[in-house]
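Homework-ish question, so no full write-ups if that breaks the rules, but can someone show me the predicted structure for this set?
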Amino acid sequence: YPDGNGFELKTALSARLGVPTAALTLGNGSNDVLELVARAFLTPEHAAVFSEHAFAVYPIVTQAIGATARVAKANPPDHEMPYGHDLAAILSLIDGRTRVVFVANPNNPTGTWQKTAELEKFLESVPESVIVVVDEAYFEYVEAEMDCPNALRWLDRFPNLIVTRTFSKAYGLAGLRVGYAVTHPQVADLLNRVREPFNVNSLALTAATAALDDFEHLERSRAVNRDGMKRLLEFCRRQGLAWLPSAGNFLCVDVGRPGREVFLELLKRGVIARPVDNYGLPRFLRISIGAETENARLIEALAEVLKS
Ligand code: PMP
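A: Not a homework solution, just the prediction itself:
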């Protein structure tokens, strides 16, 4: 069996993040951690609040519990962060039944993010009895000038804060499934009570522990992403395509026609992008930044499809 307590990985994370090991909960991907949050805090009598166009797992875990999902209107298209989370709208939906709020920062599939001051003000405004999940799956890709905060800084001030992270993105370990939550130790205790004892397998634990020390890989991931993003943005500019601001490793592009049509045409050319009509963004296509040759192939195929 794996180490059910993930001793080595927690010790390494604790040292890296400057938090006690008792603040950590490991998951089979951060997806698992989001599910633990729902199982620990939601019931059919309670509600979760999140934004339109937010990561799809929030409604799924809420529905699985039979809890109520309250969906806040997103920012309008002409906003600085079009289709991004409107924290005031989220706040206005919090009431006596609300137990959990999900904020993806940056968000998938939009790529938009909440800036430091607005997120801090939001945390100050949410009642202490409501858990706020700040999902930082894409945290490692964030550039300093974006002013997208590391929410760990607020853990001491807000015992109701849960920060989730993952080894799936910049660390490249999505197939092994390992993510984690950083919380107040009492919150970690509750999450661990509903956690399967061996939810993270031995190989994933070992790989994640090693990955934490592989600074070179992390830097390369970030550099490849930065460079690929630059090329994709240049392509969009040349094509006159609009896109949503992105702090992640993908770009949500307005393809000016049903995104699903473009998706199917790209598929015929061996390229997979993601239509996001199911996210209420029918004219957009979410394009992941890949390796250099993959990006070049996407650009070539997309140019061809958009010409027709
Ligand atoms: N949060 C967000 C915002 C995501 O986009 C994803 C993956 N698509 C996850 C969490 C879950 O990732 P994982 O389970 O691989 O850690």
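Now go work out the reasoning yourself. Hint: The mean pLDDT is 98.
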